[in-house]
Amino acid sequence: MPGFAMPLPVALTLADVTVRYGERTALDGVSLDVRRGEIVGLLGPNGSGKSTTLAVAAGVLDPAGGAVSIEGRARTADPAAFARRVGLVPQEPALYEELSAAENLTFFGRLYGLAGSDLRRRVARALARVKLTDRARQGVSTFSGGMKQRLNLAAALLHDPPVLLLDEPTAALDPASRDSLFADLTRLRDDGHAVLLTTHHLDEAEAGCDRAAILEAGKLVAIGSPAELLRPRPAERAVLYGHLRARPAKYLQRAIRQRLGAGVELEITGRRLRLSAGTGEQLGAALATLLADGLELEAYRTPAGALERRLRPEHTAAGDAA
Ligand SMILES: Nc1ncnc2c1ncn2[C@@H]1O[C@H](COP(=O)(O)OP(=O)(O)OP(=O)(O)O)[C@@H](O)[C@H]1O
C-alpha cells in the first residue's frame, strides 16, 4: 500500500461468514477485511471455498450465517445499494465476440441503466483504465485472451464500484498477459479501489498482492503479507508453477493424479498448473509423469528463484525442468 501513512479505510467486510450447500459446509466462519488501496489475494486448493467467498462478497449468494458489508453498510440493509458498490469479474469473459470493445461496454452499461453522454463517458473511461482505448472499435473476436480479460474488467468498472472482485483472473492467461492485467489492477488499487481476487498461485500473490489470505476446507487459516506467508519453513515443499498449452480434460487430470506418487499435489485451474512434492527429486519425477502423459507446458517457474523459462515445443524431456 504505497504512499499512505494512515491505515486505509475498510471497504469490504466479511464477518464470520458461513455458507452451506446442503449438508456440505463450504465456508466456516470466514472473517476478512479488504481496504481501499489494497489488493488481497485469496488462495487455497481446489474446493477450499475461494469462489464461494467471492460469490458472498458480490452479494450473489446469501450466507447461512455472518454478515457482508461495504463501508459499514450491510448488504441485507440495502441490496441494491450494495450491488452498485461492487464489481464482479467472472472467470470466463462474458463478451459478445461479434461486437467491438466499445459496443460490448455500451451493451453492459445499458443493462446497468446507463445511457446517453454519461454512458459514453463511462465507456471511454473504462477502456482507458485497462489501456484498450486504441482498440475501442476493434471486434472482440480478434482480441487475445489477455485483452478479453481486461475488457471483462472494464465492464465491471462501468459503474465505478469501490470494491472489485475477480475470480481466477489469470487462469487462462499467458505470463505476459497476466503482467498486463496486474498492471491494470495496480493502477486501480492506487486509485483507491479495494481489490479481492482468487488465485492458486502464491507466486502471483507475492508479485501482485499486498496481502494474501489462505483458505483451507472453508476456513481462513492465514492472512498476512505474501512475504510473511512465504517465509521459508524448514519442511518446505518443492513447488513448480506452470502454464499449459491447453486446458486438460477433467478425466485426463484425474488419470494423471492417480499416477502421481503419494505426497505429490497437482492443482489445475484453466491453463495454470501448480505441482508440489516433498522433495525436488519427487517433483522432477512427477513432472516427467505429466509430460509423458501428454500435458504440454508452455512456461514454468519455481518460486525460489522466480525464474521463468519458456519451453520450446521440442522440450518434452523432464531434464529440461531441472
Ligand atoms: N453449487 C454447489 N453445490 C454443492 N456444493 C458446492 C457448490 N458449489 C461449491 N460447492 C462445494 O463447496 C466447496 C467450496 O467450493 P468453491 O467452488 O468455493 O471452492 P474453490 O476454492 O473456488 O475451488 P476451485 O479452486 O476448484 O474453483 C467445495 O467442496 C465444493 O464442492
From TrEMBL:
One Pfam family per UniProt: ABC_tran
Residue ranges of domain ABC transporter in the record: 12-242
Alphabetically ordered keywords of this record: ATP-binding, Nodulation, Nucleotide-binding, Transport
UniProt-listed PROSITE patterns: ABC_TRANSPORTER_1, ABC_TRANSPORTER_2
InterPro entries documented for this protein: AAA+_ATPase, ABC_transporter-like_ATP-bd, ABC_transporter-like_CS, ABC_transporter_ATP-binding, P-loop_NTPase
Source organism superkingdom: Bacteria
Keyword NADP (UniProt): no
MF (Gene Ontology): ATP binding; ATP hydrolysis activity
Family: Belongs to the ABC transporter superfamily.
Official protein name in the record: ABC transporter ATP-binding protein
Originating species: Gemmata obscuriglobus
Lineage, uppermost ranks: Bacteria, Pseudomonadati, Planctomycetota, Planctomycetia, Gemmatales
